[in-house]
Amino acid sequence: MVTMERDDKGLTRRAVMVSAGAALLAPREAAALVQQKATEKWPEIQDFKERTPQLEPWLVKKFVIAAHANLKVTKEMLAEYPALLNAGWDWGSGDFERAIEGAGHMGNAEIAHFLLDNGARMNIFCGAMLGHLEFVKSAVDAYPSLLKSKGPHGLDLMHHARAGKAHSKHVLEWLEKHS
User: Fold this and answer.
1) Which of the two residues, 47 and 4, has the higher pLDDT score?
2) pLDDT for 51-63, tens place per residue?
3) In the chain, where does the domain assigned CATH 1.25.40 lie?
């Protein structure tokens, strides 16, 4: 039985113990609590049933990191785990990144082409880095606000065009005229 002794701030021993217990929740329990609160707040949004097990987070993170600069490891990991191709890593605060985006902002055309050849989803940022001016123009014509859009790590289209160096210089020039 827990006694209800009060300290000099008026807190009960039980209140302190309950608070301490909540602070020690395991990450999965904390996530489940957040999910429960969100479900209560937005009951009209139903969860989809899981079809296959989720990828291990550490595996996704390593793949995204590898795709920034290491073609050999990127190829090996994708051969062993094909589901990594379009998996995204959350660096925090909504900063999501996929392997293709890591290659894109690093200017790594070789890795980007490898990923695209294997079915990765192209985006405007990678298109800018690879020098695909017509692709970038058509996307901006359809959605002009893309000129101000930010990719992973808050990097804009001009950053990606600069990362592509000589083969994307014409994209950078076009972006400079239209931004």
Assistant:
1) 47
2) 888 999 999 999 9
3) 57-178
